[in-house]
Design brief:
Number of helices: 3
Helix content: 10-25%
Distance between the termini: 25 Å
CATH architecture of the largest domain: Beta Barrel
Structural class: alpha+beta
Shape: flat
CATH topology of the largest domain: Elongation Factor Tu (Ef-tu), domain 3
Length: 173
């Protein structure tokens, strides 16, 4: 079994989403020229909307759902990693429990909106990076513009990708 690719604000989905819908609305900006003609085609790209359903499994699924609820309440942008999208900064805009929770299982539906701004991926100029406080491999992969699979392949000595020690060296290439 590979690494689950869906993660948000420190919560790993036990499996990648069962359903996933990725949409982007592009707005066309019209400008009127001095001659009175209408010039169309200046496209403004809107945020990516990512919606779907998924599952949280295991003894920590209730804790993970609570973490997601807290992230939803805060409306704080965090790194979201989803198959076919990669890592983006996003805000959790909808979260629902799909059924009555059972021991070790919670079905959920979700919606995220990507946000622009924040740190841009860094240019790799050093083969290693030192982990900062509360950083994990997911954060570093996003900031370095890499996939989590690339980064874990370069760092087989790191056992837990969601937990790094401050000062730990992470190989980038």
């Amino acid at each position: 079994m590979g690494i689950p690719m869906t993660r948000f604000d420190g919560v790993f989905f036990s499996h990648d989403p069962k359903t996933l819908k990725i949409t982007r609305k592009n707005d066309v900006k019209n400008e009127r020229l001095a001659s009175g003609k209408l010039l169309s085609g200046n496209i403004l790209q809107g945020p990516v909307k990512i919606t779907g359903t998924g599952e949280l499994y295991g003894e920590n699924c209730a804790r993970d759902f609570t973490k997601l609820m807290n992230a939803y309440a805060k409306r704080k942008a965090s790194v979201l990693s989803v198959p076919y999208v990669g890592a983006v900064r996003a805000v959790l805009t909808e979260l629902s429990m799909l059924c009555e929770p059972k021991a070790g299982y919670i079905g959920i539906s979700f919606a995220f909106d990507s946000v622009h701004g924040g740190e841009k991926p860094k240019v790799k100029n050093a083969p290693y990076r030192t982990a900062e406080e509360n950083e994990d491999l997911w954060d570093i992969a996003y900031e370095e513009g890499m996939s989590i699979n690339e980064l874990t392949a370069l760092n087989p000595h790191i056992r837990f990708i969601d937990s790094l020690n401050e000062g730990e060296r992470v190989r980038l290439y």
